[in-house]
Amino acid sequence: MRAVDIIIKKKQGLVLTEQEIHFMIDGFVKGIIPDYQISALLMAICFKGLNEEERFHLTKEMLESGEQIDLSAVNGLCVDKHSTGGVGDKTTLVVAPIIASFGLKMAKMSGRGLGHTGGTLDKLESIPGFNINVSSKDFFKQVNEIGIAVVGQTANITPADKKLYALRDVTGTVESVGLIAGSIMSKKLASGAKNILLDVKVGDGAFMKTLEDAQELAKAMVNIGTKFGRKVVAMLTDMDQPLGEAVGNSIEVIEAIETLKGKGPKDFVDLCYRICAEMLIISNVCKNQEEAFKQIKEKIDSGEALNKLRLMIEYQHGNSNVIDDYSLFGTAKEEIIVSAKESGYVKKIHTESIGIAAMILGAGRSTMEDIIDPTVGIKALAKKGDYLNVGDPIAIVYTNGKNTQQAINMLYQSYELSNELVKKSDIILDVIGE
Predict the structure, then answer these.
(1) Residues 6+ apart with CB under 8 A from 206
(2) Which one of the listed residues 110, 183, 191, 320 is annotated catalytic?
(3) Residue 430 falls in the annotated catalytic set
(4) Which tens digits make up the pLDDT trace of 134-171?
(5) Model's pTM, two decimal places?
């Protein structure tokens, strides 16, 4: 078997066998097959695609290239949630405590942010003292005792995916449904949960810009998960505007805490309820959405869900007093209100631009070496369909002086107004795998 023959075969649009996929991925991980040949294969896949069987075998190779988390040591049903990433997406910080308050186990490994989308780990690290590097022993102990842990991925999870992703990032081969699905699902399957909820973001602030592309990706991931014997549901959610208001790190954690206190922004609350309800239904805790919503509200009103977040912070050595005293997060030196220069209905929001504006303030990274400033960010106050008068606040910029004016200019360019009434859209666009 030769790598060049397999590259040519895929270039011609033919289906690769399990043995051929194993040969290429295993050889790449072991350093036998060079970067330039794998790059050629990745480009051929981008142009010709992978069928359902090829996607399964690729995911299997990436999954088996490293260690898999054995959650059998956890007492109870382990569930997981994954978001494909969006602007202002702090959903895990609310969903995980709510789900844990029902007795389900959230043993979650998350990632850092890169580009215009924020990472859960970066948000959590804005909590003074919070430790994302937890030993396996402490990880299992924590999940068994309080039902919730959110930690960084171990170095040995899916090394093939890490090597492939690094190559895809610099060879223009990121945007392939088969490659994206394999990358996400290999990590989710390695994490060991039996029931998985995928939050696939769609729109201007997401990697998937159209509903059709997002549906194709969601179906691919649900099919892969099902073939591996997991129960997987994908929710396609709107990212044509920032989720909630806060875009940053500490300000997103504060918004999540407020949501667990029953005071979050409507769109963010709606999404958290819908995701939690779906997870409770696939885990056979609730029969339907109505029952789930009622019980979720009870968990929030009683403070049980908020207490799970408090316990997680304490177990991971963070200062849980931040829940009652937001000043402990630290504050940016300046708050600048960005006001409307004209009146009209908000017709379109260039969400990705808002994410980039927050990034250049210091809330995100353009490279993995960049250092995050946890106190800076943006509150995007105006929503699609809102009517703005001249002088009404569009957003608040929290800055320590880095690229402030550039971020303000980007915010002005991010909002398009219209004299005509604009209909507000539902945050859930589709559900696949129910």
Answers:
(1) 84, 85, 86, 214, 239
(2) 183
(3) no
(4) 888 999 999 999 999 998 876 688 889 889 988 987 88
(5) 0.91
